[in-house]
Design brief:
Layout: E1 2-7, H1 14-30, E2 33-39, E3 45-46, E4 65-66, E5 74-80, E6 88-92, E7 100-109, E8 114-123, E9 127-131, H2 135-151, E10 157-160, H3 164-167, H4 170-186
């Protein structure tokens, strides 16, 4: 599998709006799908355990509390160039670092009770799984990352498992994608 991981920081929060507006226009002109993301997670909830009670047994009797989560913030844009590939996310946390949220929900069944555990984690190396996408698509994604580095995120670091980011060798990229597609078929 070929993937791209990237990280970096914007110089100011004002630039998030500029980046989002500019990429919204680019997506409309290019015919790409996109989602503008602006989350402050004020809807995160917690069901506190009652004193002296068994939290699993008394789960339904607990009240729901809204957590104060003003520090949990994510804003930017997710761009889907191709419907069969992961979106490219240019989303930032409150300190302007490129980030995304990983969400994990685990359902546990017990004695006539069901407990759902939710976990949110910031990931500071967003990634794109390219699987066996074409060299042209990979090149498009790298060009977007180049543009973001030049205009918005000067300290952008990219990890490219195909090494195309470093070499810009399209023939080598085509060979790596071909080899990756053969491995995917054999799995």
């Amino acid at each position: 599998m070929i993937y791209l991981k990237y990280s970096g920081t914007l110089q100011s929060r004002d630039m998030i709006g500029q980046l989002t507006d500019e990429f919204t226009d680019i997506c409309r002109i290019s015919g790409w799908e996109y989602s503008v993301i602006k989350e402050n997670f004020n809807t995160m909830t917690l069901r506190p355990a009652q004193s002296g009670g068994d939290p699993l047994r008394d789960f339904d009797a607990m009240e729901t509390q809204t957590l104060s989560s003003s520090e949990v913030f994510l804003e930017g844009i997710a761009i889907k160039i191709r419907p069969d590939c992961d979106p490219i996310r240019f989303t930032f946390d409150k300190s302007c670092r490129l980030a995304t949220i990983a969400f994990l929900a685990t359902d546990t069944s017990g004695l006539h009770k069901k407990l759902t555990v939710k976990k949110y984690e910031f990931l500071y190396y967003p990634y794109i799984k390219l699987y066996t996408a074409s060299a042209e698509y990979h090149s498009q994604v790298v060009k977007l990352l180049d543009y973001v580095k030049k205009r918005y995120v000067g300290d952008l670091e990219v990890v490219d498992s195909s090494f195309y980011w470093e070499t810009r060798d399209e023939e080598m990229l085509k060979v790596k994608i071909w080899k990756s597609s053969i491995k995917q078929k054999s799995i």
